[in-house]
Amino acid sequence: MAKVVTLGEIMLRLSPEANDRFVQTDTFRIIPGGGEANVAVSLANYGHDAYFVTKLPKHEIGQIAVNALRRYGVHTDYIVRGGKRVGLYYAETGASMRPSKVIYDRADSAIAEADPSDFDFDTIMEGAKWFHWTGITPAISDKAAKLTLLACEAAKRHGVTVSVDLNFRKKLWTSEKAISIMRPLMKYVDVCIGNEEDAQLCLGFKPDADVEAGKTDAKGYYHIFEGMMKQFGFKYVVSTLRESISASHNGWKALIYDGKEFYESKHYDIMPIIDRVGGGDSFAGGLIHGLLTKPDQREALEFAVAASALKHTIPGDFNLVNAEEVESLANGNASGRVQR
């Protein structure tokens, strides 16, 4: 299997039990996770040599995050130890018509304050087949944006395929700032992943689709995909298509374009949702695995969508499934019967 590198921030999620609200809980569960870390865990589960790059404090709270990655087979060789704090976020799980809620407490985290001298990206990228990052990382701080650029440059020097999940977060930056940072970074990207909001707020493209109203006809994305491909020269443009029927019930599918043909995946009706945090990351991890191992974009996309559908059934940020379980669902085994 391939050496895959991801770069970003791993945080600790503090969540009330089940569907309790913040104001009524007496205890919080500690759940490690974060965009690129979640992708690394998925890829390790599929048998790849997954390396996560970040900076974490030397103290025991930082060690919680390191241990979580090691538990699931992610290589931590390139994690720099230092800085003062681990980023936190609080997540309240919604139900029915009550949406989930996230409150960030991540300012001045170790990776947000990291310097370029902390990392030797040429060494990190040596022998790698794939490098993945998300739009969350450059949004964390200007220093983190610089790290993202340096990592992309090193990846290209070493002939590494680069993917991005645009992942716009309005609590971290404005659309204007995102566009000013993200558009120049696109020249390093081979595979661009993002939904309709991400494409608009990070890159300035808007598809003819309204996911909030459940209007996710893939044809509404064709023109925007063609425009993104033409402007940035991507090898693939990919979008998930989520129908938010309620906090507990979503429709889920995806679309991929290779510059020649569009392919729309099968649709999954996910109900009840156990935990949708990390759903997009599980899709990205599945897509990377698919594009590395499958014969065409159709099979790669079906693997990614099935992987993400399964993640919605698992508590926590990490998608704790193996490739055989994903293949089973992608091949139509959705009965949920007990495996004996």
From TrEMBL:
Gene3D superfamilies noted in UniProt: 3.40.1190.20
Keywords: Kinase, Transferase
Pfam family, one: PfkB
Domain Carbohydrate kinase PfkB positions: 1-313
InterPro entries cross-referenced by the UniProt entry: Carb_kinase_PfkB-like, PfkB_dom, Ribokinase-like
SUPFAM superfamilies per record: Ribokinase-like
GO molecular function: kinase activity
Stated family: Belongs to the carbohydrate kinase PfkB family.
Protein name per its UniProtKB record: Sugar kinase
